[in-house]
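My current task is to audit a protein record that another person submitted. My question to you is simply how this chain folds and whether the tokens agree. This is what I was given:
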Amino acid sequence: MQLLEKFSINPKNIHLYDIAFLHESYSYENDLNECYERLEFLGDAVLDLVVSEFLYEKDRDLDEGELTRMRANYVCKKALYTYSMDIGLDKYVKLGAGAELSRREFYSVTGDVFESFIGALYLDLGLGSVKKFLSKTVMPHIDNGDVFFYDYKSELQQLSNQDGFSIVYDLLNEEGEPHKKTFTMAAMINGKNYGTGVGGNKKEAQQNAAKEALKNL
């Protein structure tokens, strides 16, 4: 695999890296009992750990809240998509012959496989190898101060604390298959809908609702 050569990764178990790019549609068509999703779950946790440690060591003056907000910026969907596209992981994804991804699904899958690759690397060669890989793919973005994600919910909450109004996020709609759900949330301020947001999970939908609420306020 050219990707492994590019990052000087000498695998012990090449099968793990094959799994890291198996979309569920490919697994279903080929009667396989595994796809990248379990590795994605693991990679997500490992990425959070390594980025958290890097931020913790980078600036000792940051408090817990600031560290949390910074980490959210560098592990959000847009960030994962960017890291993945930077090194061409989208080219390795194996889809079923009849599978067609929407633009949103392509965006999501491309980010997912960055985490699944991390999961495979962690299981195969350990945390040290993951840190070396992330030092070349993620940490430069942190050093550059790149912004991928703005925490609209925190800004709205801060405004709420200052002005004394209450915010509740209500789920308006939930649709789609279990692994491809779309959520619609409303930012309710003192019982009134100030903004509606849609996302692939509730947190994303809440952020989009908060963004609209801030505009309307």
Notes: The domain at 2-144 is CATH 1.10.1520.10 (Ribonuclease iii, N-terminal Endonuclease Domain; Chain A).
